[in-house]
Amino acid sequence: MIYQYCGHSGIQLPVLSLGLWHNFGSVDDFEVATQMVLRAFDAGICHFDLANNYGPEPGSAETNFGRILRKNLSGHRDELFISSKAGHDMWPGVYGTGSSRKNIIASCDQSLKRCGMEYFDIFYSHRYDGVTPVEETMEALIQLVRQGKALYVGISKYPAKEQQQAYDILREASVPCLLSQYRHSMFDRKAQLGGLPGQANDEQSNFQLAAENGSGIICFSPLAQGLLTGKYNHGIPEGSRAARSSGFLQTSQVTPERVEAAIQLAKIAESRGQSLAQMALAWVLNDSRVTSCIIGTSSVKQLEDNLATLHHLHFSSEELQLIDSIINNPQLSF
Q: Which residues in 118-153 are b (16+ Cβ under 10 Å) and which e?
């Protein structure tokens, strides 16, 4: 495994982190989930990314991870870097969602109980909800650190203006933002560019703001929900994410433009001796500002395939130019 320092801190993270967004909930195979977590740990992946609403059912990914931790990794807690988040819909009622102090604190307490832990290594505000003042949300994160419930804090998906406000408030309290989490892939570069590719962008990019403020960057959905695996190059397979009636990848998002781009990118990957997924992960990590990339896997084999990315991370300038000529298309962006 390769490790990188996280922003202006002494924390190192593996360049590949395991996310439990999908495939670790109550509807999933617990034995397969256990095998993936243990294989990841054996491979040097010490960072596991959770959130209070991961499942389904919401909360069940934390519960299952807690079971794995107690049974298999209880003697390795100090070798693990475990995150969770709060801010999206979690339980019914007005206090079960959003970025208020009440929701952040209650969510962290519940998440710790589900995981069976005394503290998280990092706890995030999962989103800026557009209503709660940034000061209130950041004060809640600061409170978690002061209470010993989190060692570090982070933000996820914050717009640039609120992102900078968060950094300023946290820095003033001597609780700097360790990690900034953004969706990023060849098909979604808004956080990196400050807007859509090929268009003039007045706003500073999320990546650049993070780098200037000493925050590490961790990326999620690096494979664009499977579009950058080649899975959809010949139609929508039965049982795939896009084939489901609900989920984060809809049939309408498997557009001809994205399929054609994936086909062209796969040719470059083949010339590099990689799968499209491996090249897509390597491309995300090619940005020197990125600390880590969150992978989501459904099997140990898929995990092994993703780990093989580390054997070939380098790109030639010609390869990068060719890739950019394919992905520099606003129609590809989510």
A: ebbbbbbbbbbeeebebeebbebbbbbbeeebbebb
